[in-house]
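Postdoc handover notes: sequence design on the structure in folder B. Input tokens:
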């Protein structure tokens, strides 16, 4: 009997993990769904950034708008950090936070705001059309992740659809602000990559908050100088635009975006931004009265197909 017990005991132990083996994979899909929804929410908030910036320029000069945008966002972030008694990040994280600050907090807002002085929001959507692919490339180089070929094929196809549509809508002509837009593309992709990486070791809102506080001295000085040299003509549009780009685009939007990136990966989340230019065109039509081409529904369907393919390809590698 003892021999039988000792022989059956190992079998009993071996069977139990085999029966429970599929169970860990069930809850694993929940963070993926949550991460996708959070990243999509970030895309929706970002899609309103260009129209809101155009509204803000009705009341403020470009340098004043960028400085005030970051100052208000830093005040909001600082309040959250103090209320949560958040500890100062470790020394090894500050280089990454500096990249986030330079790329997302200062570089992208400043360069796109300068571009929108001469470019329409529809034309500026070109930079967003290239941003998902650029971010995926930056992430692959920085983190060493290697998405499958199907992912890259769908990402390139999606970028091609967006670029073709937005350039065709703008008549195929390049504006004087394109250099600003292409510069914004590069610095933002770098900031997104570092922010997504840091969001794996600290909450996304803390990544955004510390990056904002890091630029606080620069923005204080910039606001003082800009407001002394640029006229201010307060209007309802200008105030609403400033509040949106400060509280939502620069803080709340980045919070959900980085958190989504941390859960589904930088490359996979970045491809959700393929929908952003088309959303921006919709907002520009309703809020700014800009015309939208009749081909928009076709482009929207093509982009959604490319997004679905990148998400499916990403899951096969994980």
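Designed sequence:
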């Amino acid at each position: 009997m003892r021999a039988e017990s000792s022989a059956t005991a190992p079998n009993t132990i071996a069977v139990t993990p085999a029966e429970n083996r599929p169970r860990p994979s069930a809850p694993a899909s929940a963070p993926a769904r949550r991460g996708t929804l959070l990243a999509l929410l970030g895309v929706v908030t970002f899609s309103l950034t260009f129209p809101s910036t155009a509204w803000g320029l009705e009341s403020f000069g470009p340098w004043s708008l960028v400085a005030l945008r970051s100052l208000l966002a830093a005040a909001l972030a600082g309040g959250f950090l103090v209320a949560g008694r958040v500890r100062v990040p470790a020394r090894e994280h500050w280089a990454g936070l500096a990249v986030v600050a330079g790329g997302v907090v200062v570089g992208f807002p400043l360069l796109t705001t300068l571009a929108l002085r001469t470019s329409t929001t529809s034309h500026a959507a070109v930079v967003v059309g290239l941003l998902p692919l650029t971010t995926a490339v930056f992430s692959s180089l920085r983190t060493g992740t290697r998405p499958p070929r199907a992912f890259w094929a769908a990402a390139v196809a999606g970028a091609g659809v967006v670029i073709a549509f937005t350039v065709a809508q703008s008549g195929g002509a390049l504006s004087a602000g394109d250099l600003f837009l292409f510069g914004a593309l590069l610095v933002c992709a770098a900031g997104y990559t570092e922010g997504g990486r840091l969001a794996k070791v600290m909450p996304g809102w803390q990544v955004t908050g510390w990056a904002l506080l890091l630029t606080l001295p620069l923005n204080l000085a910039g606001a003082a100088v800009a407001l002394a040299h640029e006229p201010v003509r307060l209007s309802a549009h200008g105030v609403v635009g400033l509040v949106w780009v400060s509280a939502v685009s620069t803080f709340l939007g980045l919070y959900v975006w980085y958190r989504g990136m941390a859960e589904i990966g930088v490359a996979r989340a970045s491809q959700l931004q393929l929908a952003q230019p088309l959303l921006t065109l919709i907002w520009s039509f309703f809020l700014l009265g800009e015309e939208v081409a009749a081909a928009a529904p076709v482009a929207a369907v093509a982009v959604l197909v490319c997004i679905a393919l990148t998400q499916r390809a990403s899951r096969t590698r994980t």
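Context for whoever picks this up: Confidence is low (pLDDT under 50) at residues 1-28. Don't rerun without checking with the PI first.
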